Amino acid sequence: MEIVLFTIVAGIVFYLLFFLFGNLPYGLFAGRRCKALFNTGTSPNYRELLVQNFVVYKMLGENGRRKFEKRVCRFIRMKDFRAGKNIEKITDEMRVLVAASAIQLAYGYPDVYFQRFKTIILYAEEYYSAFTGQYHQGEVNAGGAIVLSWNNFRAGFNNLNDGRNLAMHEMAHALRLSNIFDNQGYDFIDREALLEFEQLAKAEMKKIEEGNNSIFRLYGGTNLHEFFSVAVECFFEQPQEFNSYNSHLYELMTRILRIDLLNFTFE
């Protein structure tokens, strides 16, 4: 009788915990729920979503894809996803795509999860920032938040070969700031490669300013930080063109990110 009573009570507690915490990113069962998203036969098929949108995941074998998925789940567990203006709720698709963007960029750094950035805020469209007095598609706040316009975020995946991807652009900012500010594991990027990259970047920025032909879009001429993010967009969406345009700059990016899309050797 006592065993039966204990089982009933335990079941009720289990149900209450799941009801209270199951839908929260920090919930007790978030890890189990996330893993279930990548099970065979799930609908929607989140594995197929990753294949369609992330070149690194697509290049991986089965073992590598499972590792990628685990890292996506860990990223989701570590972050507080919040709905901004005109977003009714944060969906699993939103969490997976945002997390996969971060993991793709940091794939060469297995321990990097942008720890400084605890909060992910998603707005439906471009949003107004009282701090800058301007409308933004996305931003990375050094105080600990990554903010994204969902419409612009999704638009970046409509064409994966045009060198424009808001997700990779903003995650590149997060990577650079993580390299500077994270309490643990900071300064992980190859200093020599980053310094040389910035020297070559100045020459490219001058080309952009003078209106000369460059593979990098106009916004890359704003400053070194924006050039780095624009170059990251090109790296993931136009690696062959990037390498053909400036093989030295491309090689430096492979050292910075510890991944080479033209000579991919990960499992």
Q: What keyword list fits this structure?
A:
Cyclin A, domain 1; four-stranded mixed sheet; two-stranded antiparallel ribbon; 6 strands; 54% helix; 9% strand; globular
Q: What's the CATH topology name of the largest domain?
A: Cyclin A, domain 1
Radius of gyration: 20 Å
- The CATH level-2 architecture of the largest domain is identified as Orthogonal Bundle
- Which strands sit side by side, in order, in the main sheet? 1-2-6-5
Low-confidence stretches: 4-29
Counting DSSP E segments of at least 2 residues, the number of strands comes to 6
Given helix and strand content, the structural type is: alpha/beta
Helices and strands, with pairings:
Layout: H1 2-21, H2 30-36, H3 46-53, H4 55-59, H5 62-78, E1 80-83, H6 92-105, E2 119-123, E3 127-129, E4 134-136, E5 138-141, E6 145-149, H7 150-155, H8 166-181, H9 191-210, H10 224-237, H11 239-245, H12 247-257
Parallel strand pairs: 1-2, 2-6
Antiparallel strand pairs: 3-4, 5-6
Describe what this molecule looks like in 3D:
- The protein has 267 residues and is of the alpha/beta class.
- It folds into two domains: 20-186, Glucose-regulated metallo-peptidase M90, N-terminal domain (Cyclin A, domain 1), CATH 1.10.472; 189-267, no CATH class.
- Helix content is 54%, strand content 9%.
- It has helices spanning 2-21, 30-36, 46-53, 55-59, 62-78, 92-105, 150-155, 166-181, 191-210, 224-237, 239-245, 247-257; strands at 80-83, 119-123, 127-129, 134-136, 138-141, 145-149.
- The strands form two sheets. The protein has a four-stranded mixed beta sheet. A two-stranded antiparallel ribbon has the order 3-4.
- Helix 5 packs across helix 6 (92-105) and helix 9 (191-210) crosses helix 12.
- The chain is globular, with a radius of gyration of 20 Å.
- The chain starts with a helix and ends in a 10-residue tail after the last helix.
- Mean pLDDT is 86; it is low at 4-29.
